[in-house]
Amino acid sequence: MGGVTEAGAMENAEELFRVAVIGSGNWGSVAAKLIASNTVKQSMFHDEVRMWVFEETLPNGRKLSETINQENENVKYLPGIKLGSNVVADPDLLNSVKEVNMLVFVTPHQFVEGICKRLVGNIRPDAEAISLIKGMEVKTEGPCMISKLISEMLSVNCCVLMGANIANEIAVEKFSEATIGYRQDKEAAQRWARLFSTPYFLVSAVPDVEGVELCGTLKNVVAIAAGLVDGLDMGNNTKAAIMRIGLREMKAFSKLLFSSVKDSTFFESCGVADLITTCLGGRNRRVAEAFARSGGKRSFDELETELLQGQKLQGVSTAKEVYEVLRNRGWQSLFPLFTTVHEISIGLLPPTAIVEYSEHARNLNLLQGAVQLH
């Protein structure tokens, strides 16, 4: 009989792509579930999906990682959802990436730099990465996208995946879409699409890393604005206006920072669709609504702790980072919505200021031409 020799089988096994998910929160756990459903079906991937867990002790005294492995469920961040028996939780970061050549980053953006420092010199030289993280780092030389941070610190190719993706809906397999942004390596992007795509989660790829990533990042700032409108009971017309102005500022800001950003990206799932779903149902909207209902008397930090059960709010920190870029470049007047969201979130303005645009009216008109400014 013909067949594969033992040596040949070993060689083929070595060629399989091994995957690790770095992060185990709500979205990280859903990502692991999606990926695990594909690695068992597709011969190019090793079945096992490792998931790095920032170890926590649960109220019952058990370790989170042990509970995930025993019950195949993240009881804290994604209760009631089985992740797949091939998902293995590991509290040891370096062990979780051992022999892995596909790294999926899905942690709060403020932790990425510290994680990457620990990974330097401890990943395979042929590894590649994808970031599901919304946010940016603002350094003295200017804004740095998370994918660029990962790419430069680890010397890897890094794609991004963003979209209209409320994690709990994907967890119960309601239909959703996402967009992969890649720079040059289309083959790598298609491999990531194969890893993530399911009948209920459709993934497309576009050659615009910065555009895709900035859409995923900036929509959280607009969602804060939408939540403030909800908390003030201002209605759907006002909310629609805020979303439109927000999309306009997202596009102008992105194109001012990166001339390579494509207009068409804003009509992908990562753009207008993600903006809509986040402004209707995301955690940033929910916490901002509570903030507005308190008249700004309860801090975002306090409300995050109360409402999100350990999940992190990204919109407020992103608004601060965006504001730092605007201030450093003298662009505040061009971006009244972004500026106002930050000033409300730090208590300089009351929540009602979100719709007080009269003093900014002429500047809104400037946004049309903002992409020509340098």
From TrEMBL:
Gene3D superfamilies: N-(1-d-carboxylethyl)-l-norvaline Dehydrogenase, domain 2 (1.10.1040.10), NAD(P)-binding Rossmann-like Domain (3.40.50.720). NAD(+) binds at residues 23-28, 54, 111, 167, 283, 312, 314. It comes from the Eukaryota. Residues 19-186 form the Glycerol-3-phosphate dehydrogenase NAD-dependent N-terminal domain. Keywords: NAD, Oxidoreductase. GO terms for cellular component: cytosol. It comes from Dioscorea cayennensis subsp. rotundata (White Guinea yam). Residues 208-355 form the Glycerol-3-phosphate dehydrogenase NAD-dependent C-terminal domain. Belongs to the NAD-dependent glycerol-3-phosphate dehydrogenase family. One of its GO terms (biological process) is glycerol-3-phosphate catabolic process. Substrate binds at residues 134, 283-284. The keyword NAD applies. One of its GO terms (molecular function) is protein homodimerization activity. InterPro entries: 6-PGluconate_DH-like_C_sf, 6PGD_dom2, G3P_DH_NAD-dep, G3P_DH_NAD-dep_C, G3P_DH_NAD-dep_euk, G3P_DH_NAD-dep_N, NAD(P)-bd_dom_sf. The gene is LOC120260434. This is Glycerol-3-phosphate dehydrogenase [NAD(+)]. The active site is at 219 (proton acceptor). It catalyses: sn-glycerol 3-phosphate + NAD(+) = dihydroxyacetone phosphate + NADH + H(+). PROSITE patterns: NAD_G3PDH. Its EC number is 1.1.1.8. The lineage of its organism: Eukaryota, Viridiplantae, Streptophyta, Embryophyta, Tracheophyta.
